[in-house]
Specification:
In chain A, the strands form two sheets. Chain A has a seven-stranded antiparallel β-sheet with strand order 3-2-1-6-5-4-7, sandwiched between helices. A four-stranded antiparallel β-sheet of chain A has the order 9-10-12-11, covered by helices on one side. With 617 residues, chain A is an alpha+beta fold. The chains are: A alpha+beta (617), B mainly beta (333). Chain B: Keywords: Acetylation, Repeat, WD repeat.
Chain lengths: 617, 333
């Protein structure tokens, strides 16, 4: 393969010289030949190039005056060397470079652009060179520095280098690209001139590149292809320039555009039908978007038809500068408005990446077409004023689903437990019956608990909160408070004869507990609020000595209270032997001496409790 | 849909509507047969139904298949088809009181099993949501109002594990990998659980005002770092990065009313769709760097009534299903 390579190199070298001459003659900034890559089938990569633009510093070994040719070639060589060393430098340690070699800071922006171009590889149909090759036509891009990156992927680079015009045309199986920092209007004669004068054959026989567009969805396949590569890194879309060698993520130019921005000019497009279109255009038309807001497209890229047999048809002179004319219906319209269109094309890319399908997306509302457009409107087009009236409950259905469906099920279980009917479609084993009963009892228990909590909540000053935790908290606080109060009152009432209140008769347990038990009783008694009696009047003292029980009671008098007391005492298996009672000022004082009947006597606590019940009735 | 004259009406073939006799909530798109969509009714009674609809893009129609319709006790809180297109049995799962599995046959739908975790002395609390593990399709995780999440092995019909996930009711659950899931709860937290380490969970977000329940959760299946969640009574969608807990990556705040449903794009890692009470379904693209005014959606759709449900399935990546009121619509992306 050496000979192959050598001949290839020879060809390239030759071509380079030709390019050098050509670009110098027209005084453009650079010429690049993109050749078909040996590594990637169908892809275009750097073949050779000639740089004719501004130079910042000259580094030459000898201070010999060389002619322009030599210098130019040398410069291009140096740039190539620099590129190679830079790219090598990433993988292997920097080889020692001659001092006369260029380093990055020596380069002008345009040179840097040229250098970076060396790293680009264009897949089939990708980028300006790719499209040129696919379409086999000359592509003239004005305002390249402002072009959309989907059209001209190096537009940002071009911007930094002030490259304003780029032209690509197919040649010798690859693509020749010429660029300049000036804005040059389209002049295909120039290209023709270059071809004939410098590049040899007047009618360059461009080898027919197998047309991917044999089926209608080819372009979208390209999109898919391109984007499949591109989608793997997630932020590829945004970092076009960061990678050296990467698949530039740009959909085929024929990607369809977003409908809602298809506006006024559409009608123009539809109207101006050019009947002369060669068949190739029809294919394109099918795939092309009906264009979009081409208001700003004084910078459109127009394509002419590189028909190999005939000479290049001079394009409609106005085409380059005006937007919608008949011919241009069949041309690709590249719009580069500074942000407005970018969204749409961007949206296209986004959609393609979303869908990864070969769906024809959009052809525009004016175009009666079966193809689907999105149901969604562009956000920017929305009516800001439209407002949906606020619903009473936000997220009503969602909340119902989350909160109430559960309740529905629980109620159902409760009922089905009661009625014991088959409410569920799925037949269940008997174990579920048991479940239901347990569910039922569980529910009852919970309800009882809740009820008690409610009562407690109503008794205790709780400031409106009704959740269980708060109720308990407040109860605790309230209890403590009342304890304190009682202590206070105790200390003030020490002299009074009602000490009996403090005394508990329980012989068991330390005094402290007794005191507290009594106080608890008292507070419980208070909290009931059913009784209006002052607690200090109620007292029960029970002393037990062996089988002898002494009960001393004081309570408010009411009818039959004494009778009830006696009944209670009897129920407690106590044989009353002596009863003394007196009723002073509505206060009943009773003193009972009794004996425990039977073997087991009631405890003092029991007696007290029973008597308390009586009193509290 | 009455829009003002300025708004261009979506073309009829891009929005396909199904009118149901009852209100719809739960929806699912079949992976095995992408034309099949299951819709569950929301009637506040015992008798609810799940219908299977057949969607045809070419004829822009959505029709119910009468033979494939079944009763469901009380509204299903969620419906999901088996995630694998080549599953041996065409299964549909529904959650409500229990997790139920149904097999869709040619002419009928038969119940397969009811997965009931109650032991004889307890009852199992109703389920708010569930998720079918795509990597491990025998696993379904359910979330319940009793603060637990239960992981089922549906092939064996047994519980793999039950975890007390939160302090309050769990409202949604989503699988990340085969053994990792996340859940959101009324306690306002998003927690990630790893089945290999059941003792510990990671809180990756807590709602800013304490105890604001988080209602919905969606895990980005294309980029497992990202999750989205919605809060109660809030128009925000919070995007979280699991690598940076507690700090949301983005808050999408362009809905005019509370958000009801969210769904990540099935084939793109940076797109998400949301729908809310303002009747809008918004399509968002998450940029790598957000602008100073927040993130705007890419596009929107106005349904005209509160949109309660949103489904975006990998089986039909170019269509989004929404439900509002008694209608269900398929929207072209």
């Amino acid at each position: 393969m050496d000979t192959g390579n050598q001949s290839q190199k020879g060809v390239l070298e030759n071509l380079r010289k030709q390019l050098a001459l050509a670009v110098r003659s027209i005084q453009w900034s650079y010429a690049i030949f993109w050749s078909i890559s040996a590594k990637q089938p169908g892809a275009l990569e750097w073949g050779c190039g000639y740089y004719n633009g501004d130079i910042k510093t000259r580094k030459t070994v000898q201070a010999v005056d060389v002619n322009a040719d030599q210098m130019g070639l040398q410069r291009s060589d140096q740039l190539r060397e620099l590129y190679e060393s830079l790219s090598l430098g990433e993988t292997s340690p920097q080889p020692k470079r001659p001092t006369a070699a260029l380093s990055p800071e020596d380069l002008t922006d345009a040179e840097w652009y040229f250098l970076v171009c060396m790293s680009f590889v264009f897949n089939i149909g990708q980028g300006l060179p790719g499209q040129t090759l696919t379409r086999n036509e000359t592509v003239w891009l004005r305002n390249a520095h402002r072009a959309d990156t989907k059209v001209f992927s190096r537009s940002l680079l071009a911007k930094s280098a002030s490259i304003q015009t780029v032209v690509c045309f197919p040649h010798l199986g690859g693509v020749i690209e010429l660029g300049t920092t000036e804005l040059v209007s389209e002049d295909l004669n120039l290209i023709q001139h270059i071809k004939t004068s410098f590049l040899g054959s007047p009618s360059a026989v461009v080898p027919k590149i197998p047309d991917d567009g044999s089926n209608g969805t080819s372009d979208n396949n390209d999109i898919c292809e391109v984007l499949d590569h591109a989608n793997v890194p997630e932020d590829n879309l945004d970092q076009l320039l960061d990678c050296q060698e990467m698949d530039v993520c740009s959909p085929d130019n024929s990607s369809d555009d977003f409908p809602e921005n298809l506006l006024r000019d559409e009608s123009h497009l539809v109207d101006g039908v050019d009947g002369e279109a060669p068949p190739m255009q029809n294919r394109q038309f099918k795939n092309d978007s009906m264009s979009n807001n081409s208001m700003n497209s004084s910078d459109c890229v127009s394509q002419t038809y590189g028909n190999p047999e005939t000479s290049i048809r001079p394009s409609d002179g106005k085409a380059a500068d005006s937007h919608t004319h008949g011919l241009q219906k069949f041309n690709q319209q590249k719009n580069d408005s500074s942000g407005f269109q970018g969204n749409d094309i961007h949206y296209q890319v986004v959609l393609s990446s979303l869908l990864k399908s070969s769906h024809q997306l959009v052809l525009g509302p004016y175009c009666r077409n079966r193809n689907r457009e999105s149901s969604f409107l562009n956000w920017k087009d929305r009516l800001v004023s439209s407002r949906v009236p606020q619903t009473a409950t936000p997220q009503r259905l969602l909340k119902k689903v989350l909160f109430e469906v559960a309740r529905m099920h629980e109620n159902c279980r409760l009922e089905s437990g009661k009625q014991n009917s088959k409410k569920d479609d799925v037949s269940r084993p008997d174990a579920d019956e048991i479940d239901r009963n347990h569910v039922l009892s569980e529910r009852k228990r919970r309800e009882k608990l809740n009820e008690r909590f409610m009562i407690l909540g109503s008794l205790v000053p709780s400031g409106g909160k009704v959740d269980k935790v708060s109720i308990l908290d407040h109860t605790i606080e309230y209890l403590k408070e009342l304890e304190r109060k009682v202590e206070e009152l105790e200390s003030t009432r020490q002299s009074k004869p009602h000490d009996a209140v403090e005394r508990t008769s329980d012989n068991y347990g330390p005094n402290k507990n007794k005191r507290k038990a009594c106080e608890t009783d008292k507070m419980a008694a208070e909290s009931k609020r059913a009784r209006l009696r002052d607690s200090s009047t109620d007292s029960i003292t029970v002393s037990i000595a062996d089988k002898d029980v002494l009960i001393e009671m004081r309570c408010s008098w009411r009818e039959c209270v004494l009778l009830e007391v006696m009944e209670a005492v009897t129920k407690l298996h106590l044989d009353s032997q002596t009863v003394q009672s007196s009723n002073i000022d509505g206060i009943l004082s009773v003193s009972i001496k009794a004996k425990c009947k039977g073997l087991k006597g009631a405890s003092a606590g029991l007696i007290r409790q029973a008597l308390q019940k009586v009193i509290r009735k | 849909m009455d829009n003002s004259t300025q708004e261009s009406h979506p073309r009829p073939e891009n929005v396909v509507t199904f009118d149901s006799p009852y209100q719809i909530y739960a929806m699912a798109i079949s992976a095995a047969n992408r034309r099949r969509i299951a819709v569950g009714s929301f009637i506040e009674e015992l008798n609810n139904r799940v219908d299977i609809l057949s969607f045809s893009e070419d004829s822009s129609s959505l029709n119910s298949i009468p033979s494939l319709s079944f009763d469901h006790p009380y509204p299903p809180t969620k419906l999901l088809f088996h995630p694998s297109p080549s599953a041996p049995r065409n299964l549909l799962a529904s959650s409500g009181d229990f997790l139920r599995l149904w097999e869709i046959k040619d002419a009928s739908i038969d119940p397969v099993s009811t997965l009931n975790n109650s032991k004889s002395s307890e009852y199992s609390a109703p389920l708010t949501s569930f998720d079918w593990n795509e990597a491990e399709p025998r696993r379904i995780g359910t979330s319940s109002i009793d603060t637990t999440c239960t992981i089922w092995d549906i092939e064996k019909g047994v519980v793999e594990t039950q975890l007390i996930a939160h302090d309050k009711e769990v409202y949604d659950i989503a699988w990340g990998e085969a053994g990792v899931f996340a859940s959101v709860s009324a306690d306002g937290s998003v927690r990630i659980f790893d089945l290999r380490d059941k003792e510990h969970s990671t809180i990756i977000y807590e709602s800013p005002t304490p105890d604001t329940p988080l209602l919905r959760l969606a895990w980005n299946k294309q980029d497992l770092r990202y999750m989205a969640t919605t809060l109660m009574d809030s128009n925000k969608i919070v995007i979280l990065d699991i690598r940076s807990p507690t700090m949301p990556v983005a808050e999408l705040e362009r809905h005019n009313a509370s958000v009801n449903a969210i769904a990540w794009a099935p084939q793109s890692c940076r797109h998400i769709c949301s729908a809310g009470d303002d009747g809008q379904a918004l399509l968002w693209e998450l940029p790598t760097v957000a602008g100073p005014n927040g993130i705007d959606p890419m596009s929107m759709y106005s349904a005209g009534a509160e949109v309660n449900q949103l489904q975006w399935s990998a089986a039909q990546p170019d269509w989004i299903a929404i439900a509002f009121g008694n209608k269900m619509q398929m929207l072209k992306v």
